[in-house]
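Internal ticket #5521
Category: modeling
Description: The requester needs a full-assembly model to guide mutagenesis choices. All entity lines are attached below as received. Residue total reported by intake: 453.
Assigned to: D.W.
Attached entities:
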Amino acid sequence: MVWKILLFLVMTAVIIGAFVTASPMNPAISVGSPDAYRIFYFHVPQAWVASLSFLVAMYYSIRYLQTRRMAFDIRAAAANRLGLFFAVIATVTGSIFAKMTWGEFWNWSEIREVSIFLLMVIYGAYFALRSAVADPDKRASLSAVTSILFAMAAIFLIFVLPRMYAEFSQHPSDSVVDEEGQITMGRTVALIFFSSLAAFTALYVWMYRLTIRVDETGHNRTLEGD
Amino acid sequence: MPSGALNWVGSVLAVTAKDIRSEFRTRYALNAILMFALVTLTVISFGLGLLNPSKEILAALFWIILFFAAMSGLAHAFVREEESGTSLVLKLSCPGTVVFFGKMIFNLILLGVLAILIVPLFIILLKIIPADWGIFLLALIPGIIGLAGATTIVAAVVSQATVKGALFTVLSFPILLPLLVAVIEITEVAFLGGTWDEIKAPLQLLIAYDVVMTTLSVMLFDFVWRQ
């Protein structure tokens, strides 16, 4: 209970802080309205949570194939569902920002947009598969196998491809860390950003646990033949 | 154990031969793939009419035709086993890897036939001749291998589901996206007539993709096949 109140306070502080402090924009490297860059405090944590969710889903998919325990399948499905939710939010916020700053809602030569799009397609395909298999055990192992294949394709697209085509991204890659891995943000910006990152992650964990509880209850009721 | 290895190859080819024989009885997959490719190609050729599309666009169109044609028939290798109820016998008579490679080679042959038909038609109807045939084949052959390697396991997954056709395309697309990016890049160079340096990066990606995806599919195949 205490941590929920704490989360509420931190989230409130982040929202207020994001709008009353100076813009996080670095005029030396970025274009557009400085106020638009305030989205950085919300957009990046959302994209981070969406990617985190993908890793969680992957972990539980592998665990399921190792153990064949239904609990792991429920966890993987829950992580995928929340991942889809955060990926959509991150895409919408990012797209609005892109329109304001770079002039277009969507740009295929931007690798981060391609990768978040791929992430959404993967989540969508995952649920298309789940809804097409009736038998729970079969559904669990088929979706786990497909998840792992998706993960490998995503690794190729997100990590290998951009390295091969150097000038692929407009995203200010040095906004969080520079080449040496040092944090380049000002102190206020860093404080708000990392608080927001922590708050979004905590919010994710909370939502994730709720989802699992609901799904496990549903699963147990089906087992009882209710 | 050379005789063991030989035995293994023999069983793989036996599965492929069995598939080819039953394919020739119905010609379902072959007809679907070839007709789909032909129809798409004609529609594109008609649709473009007197327009003069750039060679970059033609490179992308070529792979779009190949991708969707492959999607229309490659799932059949496993769907047939489920529909005719023969998958259980196959499961009992040989190990999973043998089935996987047998089906993959069968799909590879289907795609090979498709390429042999579609490449000349594409050249005739869309009035383009690859400036560099060597580079073109370097896109085509590893591209087809990757297509067969990555979709064979998806076909096995889809054959267990209720809506097979649409699901196969939906599941294959994210998996094949890196492959498509790489092959379109190489085909562009082949059509425009570039140097070998230009295709080094995408070719590395393509070959790495083929090896990694096929290996991963073999590793995961038993989880799908032996329920």
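Resolution: model delivered.
Comment from assignee: The two ends of chain B are 30 Å apart (CA to CA).
Ticket closed.
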